[in-house]
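ugh ok so i messed up the first submission bc i forgot one of the chains. this is the corrected input, ALL of the components this time, i swear. 310 residues overall. if the numbers dont match what u have on ur side tell me asap before i send this to the collaborators (the ones from the other lab, u know who)
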Amino acid sequence: MCEQTLKDLVDRYTAVSFSVTTLAGSLVKEEIGSEITSDQYYTLKTIYQTGSCTSTHLAEVFAVKKSAITAIINRMWDKGLIKRTRDENDRRIVYLTLTEQGEEIYFMLERRIYKLVESFISKFDEAEISQFLKTYEKLNEVLIEIKENKVEKQS
Amino acid sequence: MCEQTLKDLVDRYTAVSFSVTTLAGSLVKEEIGSEITSDQYYTLKTIYQTGSCTSTHLAEVFAVKKSAITAIINRMWDKGLIKRTRDENDRRIVYLTLTEQGEEIYFMLERRIYKLVESFISKFDEAEISQFLKTYEKLNEVLIEIKENKVEKQS
DNA sequence: GTTTAATAGTTAAATAGTTGAACTATTCAT
DNA sequence: ATGAATAGTTCAACTATTTAACTATTAAAC
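and heres the new structure output, hopefully the right one now
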């Protein structure tokens, strides 16, 4: 790939990704509702997807300090969304899981997000969006690789 | 498009977009540096891109209340990144522009983001990423349309 | 032309998210 | 047994956001 083409592609990617991020962020804020904040939704989703999730794991995934996780988990625990369970073998570890109420709110938000995504996915034809998703999923793999290399370097 | 295919596409989009957003967010946090917060970068970028930007415009773009904009602009003004200029004809309006120092930091962050994006765009071949960007840009247009319809409804 | 509406932005209190540094409790290594 | 490493918490300081009340200015009605 020549210099000029690469520069053009990078410029287009940064421009469109900034715009989509801003627009999607603002739409989600307006459409998805205010039961919990978006950080709390991200936390619910990651705990739900991870079997036996810990504060350390959340801190690593979101690239924040563990004290920030303690704070957000405290607020969500106060609202009755999250359970804490100590590991019986290693009593330093605290496992995080969703309470019934936590799951209810999570599923409700997932349904609303589904509707929102459906409303614009349906404006594309299937072949187009399939090809798009294939590359998007490959981008995801590339990012996972970069992230894993960074984590290895740190340890 | 049949029900089943649409559901599959929406599910794939929500999954990959959540994962990429989380990963990219964490990489940007670790790579781009801590001169300013990401909200402040978004503010710098939007002011730079908009001729004669106002608080009202920023509040609309980011879907937050105007008082939140006042607060962030105050902090950035304290750091010498932003200038305020009153409109001579309509003295209610305050135009926001970047100071020289604000532009310097903005350009520096843009260069770092360019390097980061380049490092993963170059892992794709040109045809693949071109096709991807075409659909991504169309998605951007669709989102702009949705946003404009929402703004019209409100007024 | 004066009163009323609407618009642009600010202030202040309350809540949420984040960092950095010091801390407790527990496990691992030797 | 003792010292290092790991998992998580606490606290002070800061940033980001909302809600509601506020100032200043312009536009609209009458």
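quick check: Residues 3-32 of chain A form the longest helix (30 residues). that seems consistent at least. DSSP finds six helices and two strands in chain A.
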